[in-house]
Amino acid sequence: MNETETDVVIVGAGPTGLTLAYELALAGVETLVLEKLTSRNRQTKGGAIQARTAELLESRGLLEPMRRRAIPGPPVGANFALLPVPLDCGPWDTRYPSPVMLPQWEIEEVLEERATALGARVRRGAAVTAVEPDDDGVTVTTTDGGPPVRARYLVACDGGRSGVRKALGVPFPGRPGTYLAVLADIRLSAASALVPRERGQISTLTRQANGYWSMLIPLGDDRYRLTYGAYGREDPTDLTRDTPVGEDEIAAALRAVYGEETVLGGVDNASRFSDATRQVERYREGRVLFAGDAAHIHPPLGAQGLNLGVQDAFNLGWKLAATVRGHAPAGLLDTYHAERHPVAARVLHHTSAQRVLADPRPSEDVAALRDIFTDLMRLPDTNRYLSGLISGLALHYDVSGAHPLTGRRVPDAELTTPDGPTRLSALFGPGHAVLLDVAGLIPDDVRLPGRVDLVRAKPPAEVDLGAGALLLRPDGYVCWAADDAEACREELPRAIAAYLVDGTD
After folding, report:
1. Alpha-carbon gap, residue 478 to 483, rounded angstroms
2. Where in the chain is the domain with CATH 3.50.50.60?
3. Helix (H) or strand (E) run with residue 344 in it
4. Can you give the residue ranges of the FAD-binding domain (predicted)?
5. Right CATH number for 414-497 from 3.40.50.720, 3.40.30.120, 3.40.50.150, 3.40.50.1820?
6. Which residues of the chain have pLDDT under 50?
7. Structure confidence by residue, pLDDT tens digits, 302-340
8. Closest listed residue to residue 128, CA positions, set 109, 151, 111, 112
9. How far apart are CA 208 and CA 347, in angstroms?
10. Residues of the chain with CATH 3.40.30.120
11. Quick check: 149 and 122 in contact, CB under 8 A?
12. Strand, helix or coil at 29?
């Protein structure tokens, strides 16, 4: 049987895999996505797009079609440990201070539509059965009867129970789960006064009673997203993540928490999850890389999972594309692990802390800690710290360079260019790096690689971007900045060479 050849094969058509497929296709890299499911899972799942993820999606023109599908309701701040103080992202100067809420499957639909329009392919019903890496690439065998796939690189985006990870025997160290809970999209035919009528701050949507804890989020009309778990009794010994969730089980939980007047009208889908915490030790194993839940899992607190994976894809995409196309400096692809592994480790760390604070049956000591922590969250400095942590806006990569902006995001400023007004985010639509000159420091005869765009622009007088000239990577993070022409002459060529080999594209 002949092999299917491609530059990159991505295993898993969730938000991480499809974002990566878009990024690679945007850079002209031939990409094939293998997905074991024959059709998209239409479960709401993780659908909170945090501020930094929203900014990255906006920079590619992907956010607006998602916002048009957003779940209706008032804007609500992000949360930490389900505590009753919303996180305010306003001090971080973002256009998206509140998470954008929509079902995960609709996020996937937008991403797949845009990725395939650029030439990426998605092959469904293709579960991976074997992965054979060698020095030049990877060969993948699937269950769908299609030909084996031969690719230069493989990226595993196939979830917490990654088949790729298991096929290669890659360890997934960490802590096993301590409970199983249920996530379900349901319809109610009757609702008591205890059922929330509109989406609000998360503490108003949580409740516990009669041996259950629960969170119920209105999705419009009679539809709700229900999350619940039991406490005060042991789960049946034969209960696993794959045990089907029956309507009777869901109805019993609803009655226990929301009263006999709350009647289940139907279940659209339901699944179980745990609070396990794990992370692979290396995000790259030769020609195989790991992203999203295939690389890290954690308790579902603070709406981090989808965002962590999508940001993995934005970090990896341009680096892998440059490597495949042959204009990446040595070691560029390895910076994916160096930059993203610590980010996920930090998320695992703070979701573990949230897990303690969010315990539905806290000890007397934890209850006291929660009261004090809630008071601390009302202090502006504490709230800013936590909002930056949860939203991703505080993320700072360890990028070499003396300027204080290196490794940081730049807020999406209004700009005036010779071609007219624009926004900083709009400059990243092609997926290129951007050399932004706001002080006339870059000489006219500067020599740039093909995927670095020079933009001369001015922000409003009241806006200070923090430097006279900035080199921003395709994912929007500053990799060089300067305030005088001499630094531009001396440092800029070295900064460009650190990310893109000087030459044609």
Report:
1. 14
2. 4-173+278-390
3. helix 335-357
4. 5-349
5. 3.40.30.120
6. 234, 502-505
7. 888 899 999 999 999 999 999 999 989 889 999 999 999
8. 151
9. 26
10. 414-497
11. no
12. coil
CA 30 to chain centre: 23
Question: What does the block give as tokens for 476?
Answer: 């929007």
Q: Where in the chain is the domain with CATH 3.30.70.2450?
A: 180-274
Closest by CA position to 77, among listed 190, 159, 200, 195: 200
> What would the DSSP string read from start to end of 81-123?
TT-SS-B--GGG--S--S-EE--HHHHHHHHHHHHHHTT-EEE
- The three-state secondary structure class of 465 is coil
> What's the rounded Cα separation, in Å, for the pair 189 and 198?
16
The CATH number fitting domain 180-274, selected from 3.30.470.20, 3.65.10.10, 3.30.70.2450, 3.40.309.10: 3.30.70.2450
Angle in degrees, CA 55, 454, 491, rounded to 5: 100
Residue 146 corresponds to which amino acid?
G
pLDDT tens digits, residue range 40-81? 888 777 778 999 999 999 999 999 999 999 988 788 888 999
E strands in 149-307: 149-156, 174-175, 180-190, 206-209, 212-220, 223-230, 263-274, 277-279, 284-285, 288-290, 296-297
Rounded to the nearest 5°, which phi and psi values hold at 332? -60, -45
Rounded Cα distance, 418 and 454, in Å: 12
| Cα–Cα distances in angstroms (integers) from residue 186 to residues 43, 250, 345, in the given order | 10, 9, 34
Q: Under CATH, what is the fold of the domain 4-173+278-390?
A: FAD/NAD(P)-binding domain (3.50.50)
Residues 217 and 183: their CA atoms lie apart, in Å, by 11
